[in-house]
Amino acid sequence: MKVLIVGANGKVGTLLSGKLWGAHDFSPVALIRDPRQQTKFTGIGVPAVTGDLESGVSKYLPGLDAVIFTAGSGSKTGPDKTTDVDQNAAIRLMDDCEKQSVRRFIMISAIGADPNSESVRIQHYLRAKGVADARLRSSRLDYTILAPGTLIDEKGTGRIQASEKLPHHGFLPREDLATTILETMRNHLTIGKTIQLVSGSEKIKPALAAVVGGGDLPPIV
Predict the structure, then answer these.
(1) Is residue 78 situated within a structural domain?
(2) What is the pTM (predicted TM-score) of this model?
(3) In this structure, what DSSP letter does residue 89 have?
(4) What is the distance between the alpha carbons of residues 37 and 128, in angstroms, rounded to a whole number?
(5) What residues make up the domain containing 154?
(6) Known catalytic membership, residue 125
(7) pLDDT at residue 165 above 70?
(8) How confident is the model at residue 201 (pLDDT cuts 50, 70, 90)?
(9) Number of domains in the chain
(10) What is the CATH number of the domain that holds 74?
(11) 113, 125, 135, 179: which one is catalytic?
């Protein structure tokens, strides 16, 4: 299964690149903005392509089976850049995937993403994510939206709490999010679902299966 990782140079994208490359059922391709970032991916055996998400990357879509959107404007940018990347560039990529018949689309969102968010701290980010998520839900794509709590750099535990609507916010190691993305790709029943994630007590694979009503299905090819 050939997969384009959008935002590969970020922390989650880098972890995910290594995990997908180590799995026998995936062939990852890293999308990077700066050619100098290619050395990192060459070191872990993952091919990389250079492109600007805001300008469009449709030329890399033919032949792909799936796209994973882990890109983000970053905490050091302002509201305009957040809209450009987390909302507009994401929607443009969805449109291009529909045109190129790349049906599987995994979106990394956030708990609280909502076009009408009233969050005091990160309202603009959650609204941008919410608009993109809404567009994805109305698309013709085989989507899954993963909405983690606050991401942290601690070592993953391999255990999460997952639900279509969690009763609380929480934290999640980036490593566990990367593993959850991989298992989401392997489970067809996650298609059409929005799944919220925080650290928990259940192993990742059965936690996902419990949300969607099954599991242990082969990836889409």
Answers:
(1) yes
(2) 0.93
(3) I
(4) 27
(5) 2-212
(6) yes
(7) yes
(8) very high
(9) 1
(10) 3.40.50.720
(11) 125
